[in-house]
Design goal:
Blueprint lengths: L8 H14 L5 H16 L3 E4 L4 H5 L4 E4 L9 H4 L7
Antiparallel strand pairs: 1-2
Helix pairs in contact: 1-2
C-alpha cells in the first residue's frame, strides 16, 4: 500500500501491524525496513536508527538504520568505537 493511500495515523499503524504479523519470518527484516521508510515519510523524518541497550550487542552491530533515499547511509562504525570507557 502506498503511503499516499493512507489517510490517518490509525490506518498507518493498522497496515503496518497487519503486514508485520502476516509476513514470513525470513521476510521480516525487509518488510520492517519498507514499513520504517513509510513511517519516515509519514512523519517527515530523515532517518530512524534503533540500537540495543547493551554495549556487547551494539559492538556486534545489532542495530537497524533506515533513511530517506536522499540521505546517505549511516556509518555505524563511527559511533560504536570508543563509545564507552574501559575500567
Amino acid at each position: 500500500m502506498s503511503i499516499k493511500a493512507i489517510s490517518s495515523f490509525e490506518q498507518l499503524i493498522q497496515y503496518q501491524v497487519t503486514t508485520l504479523a502476516s509476513c514470513r519470518a525470513q521476510d521480516f527484516d525487509s518488510s520492517f525496513l519498507e514499513l520504517a521508510k513509510q513511517g519516515l515519510e509519514w512523519f517527515n523524518l530523515d532517518r530512524l536508527t534503533l540500537f540495543p541497550n547493551s554495549m556487547i550487542l551494539l559492538n556486534d552491530g545489532k542495530t537497524v538504520s533506515v533513511s530517506q533515499s536522499h540521505i546517505p547511509p549511516l556509518e555505524k562504525e563511527k559511533f560504536v568505537v570508543g563509545n564507552y570507557q574501559d575500567t
